[in-house]
Write a structure and sequence with these properties.
This protein is of the alpha+beta class. The protein has 48 helices and 45 strands. Strands 1-3-2 form a three-stranded antiparallel beta sheet, with helices on one face. The protein has a three-stranded antiparallel beta sheet with strand order 4-6-5, with helices on one face. A three-stranded antiparallel beta sheet has the order 7-9-8. Helix 4 runs antiparallel to helix 5, helix 31 packs antiparallel against helix 32 and helix 43 packs antiparallel against helix 44. Appears to play a role in cell sterol metabolism. It may function to protect cells from over-accumulation of cholesterol.
Length: 1249
């Protein structure tokens, strides 16, 4: 059922007429009518007195919401009695848990008798809960039972168990009451002794109270219950008030005859007597009559919530018995005194007939218009006639009304008027459209259907997808309905003629085609607005992109998208270039300058592996040719930086896969063994035999021999065997620098391949070679692995002074030993003990090798010397390198320790000098040697003597050297470049510092500071740059040739051309700069040309040729009717441009307000001007007829009489909302403050209108 609102008759008639009569001055509402005052509460003496008492009564003092209570647990009742663990252990944990659970604060203390005192602070509720938890968890528990009558148990529980909870909190006990179905009357209590006694006492008190009370049950026939309760329960209420007992009469809906009376024994007895008395009287004096009342009218006799029955009982003293709603009986029984039954019967029939049911015929499609938006129309009727119930049944052409007869008749009349009006002025139609087109008719976000609704003022109902209906219903104004129907059918026809095409586009391109936030696909959709482009959901992994729309547009869009994909495929070529890891930073350049330059110049994307990655591959993406260029440039940088050799080896292509091995294992093992050379095989299936090896010359040759040997083995009968060993044994099996595994390979001729970090199976070792070589190598390795599995323990003596070296840096040296020697465990004695015994545990060979290595380290430590290297402090930072990389490399290469001094504090030094003008005598113990090096310049190196000396040489080689290069002063600013970009680029490229002297020095010397091996390259680069700049200077001098040409200013716009098109062409073609005179220049006819001499002359000749051509042109004025000018000019000037381009002439139409609006000027060559004029006159003749016809039509369609503006003038200006006797019209309501102000004539200030 829906709720509906309907217009009243008066407002509906007003709505139909569309006009309201204007109100006269007298009819204006007063201020009080328009804005009625709020009702004021009447001040009564009692109310005043109450208020006074409320405010004058004594205010109770505020109490703190936080309370504190102390609980005592005797020693014998303590659950945790361990006196040594006070403040810790389980007891403390329990207290913390109680605090978290209850929110109270607990403090524990021990009394002299070892009893536990607990102070609990917090809100009352929290303290009581904490007390209960303390008793149950910190105090030993006792239990007891108490027996009370079963019927008293519910009083112990209380309403919703509140009484029981209160008892448990109050006594800090746990009380268990047997379930209702349990016959036991025993209540079990558990808690402390004190709590048990309290709980028992409270329960027995409750039972004792209930013993004083009585319960009586009286069976009275159900039909006499209304006489006992009285109308609106007045009689039973009086009985309860008189006796003080509680009388419970079952409600009419409950089919019980038992009436329960509870209270004190005397009260209950009195109540029972009264009830029986009333019952006996009514039983004797009452009689019944049965009448037939329609089932549908029973509810009117009952009334809302049975009120009507109660009213009849109150008025006549007769009880009316209605059959239940699920019964089909229509018999109503009236029970009461005989002389009252007639009056009651009259009341029953009056109530039954007071309501009527009626219906109004109305097409079901009009129901929602009758209801109105959000039920507005129906609300107006229901507000006036609230007793009338209006029901709209979906699918039925009627409206059901139910209510008082008169009200129903009035509502029926109003609804019939509305229905008649709607039938006269509204129509509907239905069209059948395939459901697959429904969502396209609706459009994205309902844009299509909403446009149709607003344009034609109709409502369109398109069935939801789950209905699978083809019927679309259109309702509204008859004309709008027909127009909307026509448009929807046209859209449907167009969609039926549409074509759907599936494009296969790899999913990896979808994101790129769509673009960020859909920007790129939006451009495509804007270009082809009639084509719908649907991409598959990324989760579907589909390559199908669907296009739908008109056939031609779909084809064009498909070609356009295929072109985009082709470009992406072309630009998506990928190339991997192996570059030695140490040269990656050189490829990047300082601040990314090198890599950025290569990317920009080759239009490619270049990705380098992360700094912490072991990969050496640089990936280049873009067009194939561009990728090749980028690769060449990257390889050239590597070749320039290092002694890199590249050779090609011819190996049959059929062997390539076997040489590469599973996941590249074989070829990777060769590359790692030969110092990380790069081996590049051609792409599979290319048929090319050449394999490229790149790297240091010696390693390349070594890799070549191994690759050829492996290829030869593969061509003969090559065998492969696999064996397993724990990953920690691998380093020991390989040996330092691959020594151990090389011995096995040299003795057997087999190749042994160990797993890499990326391999899943870290235990698998592969042996490749001839059958005999594999067998021998496998046997040797198995013996080695077997011996490694035999764990032994050995000891060695290490001087305690060297222990620190092994265990320093969190035992880094020991971890390195374990990695290198099969996971051997080395244990040093604990710090503080003077033992020199060191224990080694592991495989026998690993222990022996580790022991030998440790002895070498100890020998190195014993032979260690300290050498000082003096290098000026200002060079220390450059020696260290970025993040100390250079110094770390020297430390690794020479196995030494290098310590740099602290930086000198210049401020501290000055403070010493300034102390009373002389140094503090107490600080100067002996004279300082002026030739002695400063402490801040001394670098300390420790290690073996020969290694320390080599490290000193390496450090000194890193000291920057400065040289001077002579560069003409006038070129300095070009070398520096814009904002220093030029000099920064050179410094990044050559890894040096270049210092250009200040301009005021006028010096030709430029200083270059850097490592000695970088200076020569930097000097060459700088001199090369000087040569380029000098060549540029000469070129600039040649380009600065200037000449002028005199041209009449009237020809300047023609030479410039539309949007500068002509002059731009001349400038570009001859590579010159052409300058026209400014407005304020004296020589308005001079055009200046600057550039190479021969090009400037050629440009001048081109301009002169234009001028000669313009001088041959003529201008003629013709008269063209101004009414056709707009047609000739066309939309956005398309028509006039077409004429000008076709006849090579210039047309000038008059501006608005010109003296002669019909005058048009044509300029060009004489023969072309004549042709253009003829064409224009022909167009005029053609267009003038249309213009005259349009004017005639306008004369008939123009409205007669005054315009809308005139009508507004007749109505006069709107006065807005006007009321009389408003406060702002009387100064009385706005009295002035203080002395009157003479300048203001109105309380609101001077008028501004």
């Amino acid at each position: 059922m829906s709720s509906v609102a309907v217009l009243t008759q008066e407002s509906f008639n007003e709505h139909r007429s569309g006009l309201r009569p204007e109100k006269g001055e007298d009819a204006l509402p007063t201020y009080k009518d328009a804005f009625p005052p709020l009702p004021e509460k009447a001040a009564s003496p009692e109310g005043t007195q109450e208020t006074t008492n409320a405010w004058t009564s004594k205010i109770r003092p505020l109490k703190s919401s936080v309370i504190t209570q102390v609980f005592h647990v005797p020693l014998e009742e303590r659950k945790y009695k361990d006196l040594n663990q006070f403040g810790e252990g389980d007891q403390a944990k329990v207290c913390v848990d109680i605090m978290h659970k209850t929110g109270a604060h607990l403090e524990l203390s021990l009394a002299k008798d070892q009893g536990l005192s607990i102070m609990v602070s917090g809100k009352l509720d929290a303290v009581m809960k904490a007390r209960k938890e303390i008793v149950s968890r910190l105090q030993t528990q006792a239990s007891a039972t108490v027996a009370i009558p079963k019927e008293h148990h519910r009083f112990v529980i209380g309403k919703n168990g509140e009484k029981l909870q209160e008892l448990e909190l109050k006594t800090a006990t746990k009380i268990q009451i047997p379930r209702p179905d349990d016959t036991s009357n025993q209540i079990k209590i558990s808690g402390t002794k004190e709590g048990l006694e309290k709980a028992k006492h409270e329960i027995l008190l409750i039972s004792a109270e209930q013993d004083k009370r009585a319960v009586e049950r009286v069976n009275i026939d159900k039909v006499y219950h209304p006489f006992l309760t009285g109308a609106f329960n007045k009689l039973v209420g009086e009985m309860m008030q008189e006796t003080g007992a509680r009388i419970n009469v079952p409600p009419p809906s409950v089919n019980k005859t038992e009436i329960v009376i509870t209270g004190e024994k005397e009260q209950v007895a009195l109540a029972v007597t009264l009830i029986k008395k009333v019952y006996e009287e009514k039983k004797k004096s009452t009689t019944t009559i049965a009448v037939e009342v329609k089932k549908s009218q029973h509810k009117y006799v009952i009334g809302p919530k049975g009120n009507t029955l109660q009213e009849i009982l109150e008025k006549t003293g007769v009880s009316v018995e209605i059959p239940p709603s699920d019964s089909s009986s229509e018999t109503v029984i009236l029970r009461g005194e005989p002389d009252r039954l007639g009056q009651a019967l009259t009341e029953v029939y009056a109530k039954a007939n007071s309501y009527t049911i009626s219906s109004v015929s109305a097409p079901s499609w009009l129901h929602r218009f009758i209801i109105g938006k959000k039920g507005q129309n129906l609300a107006k009727i229901t507000q006036q006639m609230p007793k009338v119930h209006i029901e709209f049944t979906e699918g039925e052409d009627k409206i059901t009304l139910e209510g008082p007869t008169k009200d129903v008749q009035m509502v029926q009349g109003q609804i019939e008027i509305i229905v008649t009006d709607l039938v006269n002025r509204m129509d509907f139609t239905e069209i059948s459209v395939d459901p697959k087109f429904h969502r396209h008719l609706i459009g994205k976000g309902g844009v299509n259907i909403n446009r149709i609704k607003e344009l034609h003022k109709v409502t369109v109902r398109i069935p939801p997808d789950n209905e699978k209906s083809t019927v679309i219903r259109i309702e509204g104004d008859p004309q709008g309905v027909q127009e909307a129907k026509k448009e929807l059918l046209e859209l449907t026809t167009r969609m039926e003629n549409e074509r759907t095409k599936d494009l296969i586009i790899e999913q990896r391109f979808h994101r790129a085609i769509i673009g960020q936030k859909g920007e790129k696909i939006k451009e495509v959709r804007d270009k082809f607005p009639e084509v719908i482009i649907n991409f598959p959901d990324p989760a579907q992994k589909s390559d199908i992109v669907q296009l739908r729309g008109p056939r031609n547009e779909v084809e064009k869009c498909a070609k356009f998208m295929q072109k985009i994909v082709a470009e992406m495929v072309e630009n998506g070529f990928c190339l991997s270039v192996p570059i030695f890891k140490q040269f990656h930073r050189n490829i990047i350049g300082k601040g990314g300058s090198n890599i950025k330059k290569i990317r920009e110049e080759t239009s490619t994307k270049i990705d380098l592996p992360a700094e912490n990655s072991n990969s050496e591959m640089i990936v280049i993406t873009g067009k194939k040719a561009n990728c090749e260029v980028a690769r060449s440039r990257i390889l050239a940088i590597q070749k320039e930086l290092a002694n890199i050799t590249e050779i090609e080896v011819s190996i049959p292509s059929k062997l390539h896969n076997s040489l590469i091995g599973s996941k590249g294992r074989f070829v990777r093992s060769i590359m790692e063994e030969c110092g990380g050379v790069h081996i590049h095989f051609p792409t599979e299936g290319s048929g090319i035999d050449k394999v490229t090896i790149r790297g240091p010359a010696e390693e390349v040759e070594k890799a070549k021999q191994q690759l050829l040997a492996l290829a030869e083995e593969k061509q003969t009968k090559s065998q492969t065997a696999e064996l397993r060993a724990k990953p920690e044994y691998h380093k020991f099996l390989i040996g330092k620098g691959g020594g151990n595994i090389r011995k096995v390979r040299d003795s057997t001729g087999a190749r042994i391949i160990f797993p890499t970090a990326e391999d899943k199976d870290q235990e698998l070792i592969t042996v490749v070679g001839t059958e005999e070589a594999v067998r021998d190598a496998q046997k040797e390795l198995e013996e080695l692995i077997k011996s490694l599995d035999n764990v032994v323990e050995d000891n060695m003596i290490v001087d305690p002074k060297h222990h620190r070296y092994f265990v320093a840096r969190r035992g880094q040296v020991l971890r390195d030993l374990a990695d290198e020697y099969g996971g051997v465990m080395v244990s040093f004695p604990r710090t503080g003990t003077q033992s020199d015994k060191v224990t080694l545990k592991g495989a026998k060979e690993c222990v022996e090798a580790a022991k030998k290595r440790m002895l070498e380290i100890v020998e190195d430590l014993d032979a260690q010397v300290i050498i000082e290297c003096v290098i000026t402090q200002k060079f220390h930072r450059s020696i260290m390198g970025p993040k100390g990389s250079r110094i770390q490399q020297i430390t690794r290469d020479h196995n030494v320790q290098i310590k740099f001094p602290e930086r000198e504090d210049p401020q501290g030094k000055r403070a010493l000098i300034q102390e009373n003008g002389e140094a503090d005598a107490g600080d100067v113990k002996e004279p300082v040697d002026p030739n002695a090096p400063k402490k801040c310049d001394v670098i300390v190196i420790s290690g073996r003597k020969e290694r320390c000396e080599a490290a000193v040489e390496a450090l000194k080689a890193l000291v920057p050297v400065t040289i001077e290069v002579e560069v003409p002063f006038d070129l300095h600013r070009y070398i520096i470049g814009q904002k220093g970009s030029g000099i920064r680029k050179m410094m990044d490229e050559f890894e040096v510092n270049i210092q250009v002297p200040a301009p005021e020095q006028q010096s030709d010397k430029i200083s270059i500071t850097g490592l000695a091996n970088h200076l020569d390259r930097a000097k060459e680069g700088l001199l090369e740059r000087v040569k380029e700049l000098q060549a540029d200077q000469e070129d600039r001098a040649l380009r600065s040739f200037k000449l002028t040409i005199t041209v009449d200013p009237k020809y300047h716009p023609k030479i410039i051309g539309r949007k500068g098109a002509i002059i731009t062409t001349i400038r570009t073609e001859h590579d010159v700069n052409i300058q026209f005179p400014e407005k304020n220049d004296e020589n308005q006819d001079q055009i200046t040309i600057t550039g190479y001499e021969h090009k400037a002359i050629a440009a001048r000749d081109a301009i002169q040729a234009l001028v000669d051509e313009l001088e041959e042109m003529i201008s003629e004025d013709i008269t063209l009717d101004s009414r056709v000018h707009a047609r000739i000019i066309g939309a956005r000037g398309k028509g006039i441009r077409k004429i000008m381009d076709e006849f090579k002439v210039d047309l000038r139409f008059p501006q608005s307000g010109a003296a002669d609006p019909n005058l048009v000027t044509v300029t060009g060559r004489p023969e072309l001007v004549d042709e253009a004029i003829d064409h224009l006159l022909n167009l005029e003749e053609e267009y003038i007829a249309d213009a005259v016809e349009n004017e005639t039509k306008m004369a008939y369609t123009r409205p007669h009489g005054g315009s809308a503006a005139g009508m507004d003038e007749q109505r006069g200006p709107s006065k807005g909302f006007v009321v009389r006797e408003a406060p702002w019209t009387t100064v009385y309501y706005f009295p002035s403050f203080g002395a009157p102000v003479a300048t203001k004539s109105s309380p609101w200030g001077p008028k501004r209108f």
